[in-house]
């Protein structure tokens, strides 16, 4: 059941991101040197990322106020399904490492783990808090 639930959640999150407009039409992002405003969601993202992989707790601490680690749905909204390696708008988010990125969303059916988004293909998975993934903060 865990595998089936993971696949279903991955499909739902990626599909909802696509429906919500995860493609990057002209004017979706307002870019400054250090931040990106997503005009579709109203969220402001740090343009850069952590310099290396962090545990889940470290990633949460990395995103200091007023920033925070995004939810799975928020981070998945950045996935651009029209591209891969990385599956993100590289004009708005240049030099994005093709890595896995933590979300603030714990995994309800797998205690001690949280969801992350991998930006190779833009899929969503979960893994243990002790795993090392990158962080991109939002507010």
Description:
The strands form two sheets. The protein has a three-stranded antiparallel beta sheet, with no helix packed on it. A three-stranded antiparallel beta sheet has the order 4-5-6. The radius of gyration is 14 Å and the shape is globular. The chain is 22% helix and 21% strand. It has helices at residues 2-19, 56-62, 72-76; strands at residues 29-31, 35-38, 44-46, 100-106, 113-118, 123-128. Strand 1 (29-31) and strand 2 form a beta hairpin. With 139 residues, the chain is α+β, with helices and mostly antiparallel strands.
Describe what is shown at a glance.
By secondary structure, this protein is an alpha+beta fold.
Q: Helical element count? A: 3
Strand order of the largest sheet: 1-2-3
Number of distinct beta strands:
6
SS-based class: alpha+beta
What's the topology here?
Blueprint: H1 2-19, E1 29-31, E2 35-38, E3 44-46, H2 56-62, H3 72-76, E4 100-106, E5 113-118, E6 123-128
Antiparallel strand pairs: 1-2, 2-3, 4-5, 5-6
What attributes characterize this protein structure?
three-stranded antiparallel beta sheet; 6 strands; 21% strand; globular
